[in-house]
Specification:
It is a single chain. By secondary structure, this protein is α/β, with parallel strands linked by helices. It has two domains: 182 residues, Isopropylmalate Dehydrogenase (3-Layer(aba) Sandwich), CATH 3.40.718.10; 147 residues, 3-Layer(aba) Sandwich (Isopropylmalate Dehydrogenase), CATH 3.40.718. Helix content is 36%, strand content 18%. Helix 7 packs across helix 8. The two termini are 22 Å apart.
Length: 340
């Protein structure tokens, strides 16, 4: 057990499905030690509701637990919580979960962190006005100037076991602001981060990246917008000269066909709703959210807090299980014990 990577799992919004999905995990499915960061009492209560069969024990860094147990790093709630009932007074608790996981990853205590869903509105209303999401918060707390959001999941429509990976050039922006946010500098850095993490975190020696155009038909030679001609194509040409394998810009309406996807290891979409609806349609329930460019490994679920399901025991834990499995694989790649 001492050789197994420690994976920190933040339990997320206490009123949502995160705590029960975490408490219902079967640790025997993973070649790792799983450490749930959350409120001990809440996790025990949700484990009973979700029918969790694993024993929850207090986390002791130097004392590996017995097989089949889930470790809990206790961080108390500010206020008792009922499933499905949001309370802004617990916003600080959710932030504290993230801070503890980040600190543990930075110190080497944890090999990776996995995040259950949080509720942005509650965090903002609870006194964290600048909070825009996990991705941006992790970048801020690790002093990372730019990160890349990527979602991934199995897509058998391309080929059995094919891993569909979709990264974003812009994330949570109003649509009218997207074009202005795609600059030569930001696009260049995004592609360099994506290429580097595909190499170093996923172990892909020569990543092939399919790049979507911004405009319909990838601008159609400038008749439907000039972003491709003025920004995207020059950036791709410059990076190809550095050795990056970039295909595009491709029209987004045909890029996601299986024969095209089979030619690449990842897709770079220009904005959130260009790439993610397709990925979630193909992989929902098993999808994974990753933050690339960080000095740590972070994966997450591809769904929200599902307040209407909280406490029912009916929430699907497939995405969380997939996120943990990928975090373990990436951690082992980082340790040099896995080249896949």
């Amino acid at each position: 057990m001492n050789q197994l990577p420690l994976i920190a799992i933040t339990t997320g919004e206490p009123a949502g499905i995160g705590p029960e999905l975490c408490a219902a995990l079967d640790p025997s499915l993973f070649d790792a030690r799983l450490v749930l960061i959350g409120d001990r009492t809440l996790l025990h209560a949700r484990a009973r509701l979700a029918g969790g069969k694993s024993q929850l024990v207090d986390y002791a860094p130097d004392q590996p637990p017995a097989p089949g147990t889930l470790e809990v790093l206790h961080l108390p709630l500010a206020r008792p919580c009922q499933a499905g009932e949001l309370d802004t007074r617990n916003a600080g608790h959710v932030i504290a979960l993230l801070d503890r996981a980040i600190a543990g990853c930075q110190s080497g205590e944890f090999a990776a962190m996995v995040t259950a869903p949080l509720h942005k509105g509650v965090i903002i209303e609870g006194g964290h006005a600048g909070f825009t999401g996990h991705t941006e918060y992790l970048a801020e707390q690790t002093d990372t100037p730019q990160v890349v959001m990527m979602l991934a999941g199995r897509c058998d429509a391309v080929s059995p076991g094919f891993s569909l990976r979709v990264a974003l050039a812009t994330t949570h922006l109003p649509l009218r602001e997207v074009a202005d946010a795609i600059t030569p500098i930001s696009l260049t850095q995004t592609l360099r981060i994506l290429d580097a993490d595909l190499r170093h975190k996923f172990g892909i020696a020569r990543p092939r990246i399919l790049v979507a155009g911004l405009n319909p038909h990838a601008g159609e030679g400038g008749h439907l917008g000039r972003e491709e001609l003025d920004i995207i194509i020059p950036v791709l040409d410059a990076l190809r000269a550095e050795g990056l394998q970039l295909i595009g810009p491709l029209p987004a309406d045909t890029l996601f066909n299986p024969p095209v996807l089979a030619q690449g290891d990842a897709v770079l979409a220009m904005y959130h709703d260009q790439g993610l609806p397709v990925l979630k349609h193909a992989t929902f329930g098993q999808g994974i959210n990753l933050t690339l460019g960080l000095p740590l490994i972070r994966t997450s679920v591809d769904h929200g807090t599902a307040l209407d399901l909280a406490g029912s025991g009916r929430a699907d834990g497939g995405s969380l299980q997939a996120a943990i499995a990928l975090a373990v694989s990436l951690a082992r790649t980082a340790q040099g014990t896995n080249t896949a």
